[in-house]
Hints:
Elements: H1 8-11, E1 23-38, H2 47-56, E2 62-64, H3 70-82, E3 87-89, H4 94-103, E4 108-112, H5 113-122, E5 126-130, E6 156-164, H6 169-183, H7 186-194, E7 198-199, H8 204-225
Parallel strand pairs: 2-3
Antiparallel strand pairs: 1-4, 1-5, 1-6, 1-7
Amino acid sequence: MASGLSLPPCSVAELAYDTLKDFAPVTLLAKTPSIFAVHPSLPVKSVKELIALARARPGQINYAGGAGSTNHLDAEYFKSLAKVDIVQVPYQRHRRSLIGVLSGEASIIIAPTLVVLPHMRSGRLKALAVTSLQRSAAIPKFPRSTNQGCQVSKTAQWYGILLPAGAPEPVVTRLNVESVRIVQTPEFAARLAREGSIPQGTSPQEFAIYFRNEIAKWQKAIRMSGARAE
């Protein structure tokens, strides 16, 4: 399952399942950090400069993101940590958000590495930082947001394995051991690197803690934004 699973408990009023109680975490397989990117016309070269500009122009700089989407919530999380007032330009689809920034209709997007990387290389987007404490093999020398004199977002798409709650412990343990073994192979790491992802391979207990923290993080962002899923 992917990181989108941590969003419904935060943005959907009624769910047919309990995300924390109805699943048994096995392992976190990989993370794909997001990239802070802006339209080239925005006069900033770093996240620190972006924050300074946004504080100097409250309510005048916008970002792309559909209501309840990861683009939207990443930006709201950034707003809450950086204490800036940037304005959402709502789009119905993830692809449309990207087109909006490429066209200059919106100024900022926070999107997965795989989405931003081609446009960063072509010069159609100006990338400012990657939102990860770990280095991504796809962009090993790219600055991290936390290394620019400001504690900003540490968001990432994630991919993991969960079983139905109550799965036998020997099954969870065996699946964890085999999954971690695969994650640690050079072949798996190389494939992830091509997609801008970072291998993980955690214990079930570590994944459970990470999962709970992800939900708590998005709950905070949604309280501030009032966002709901489309």
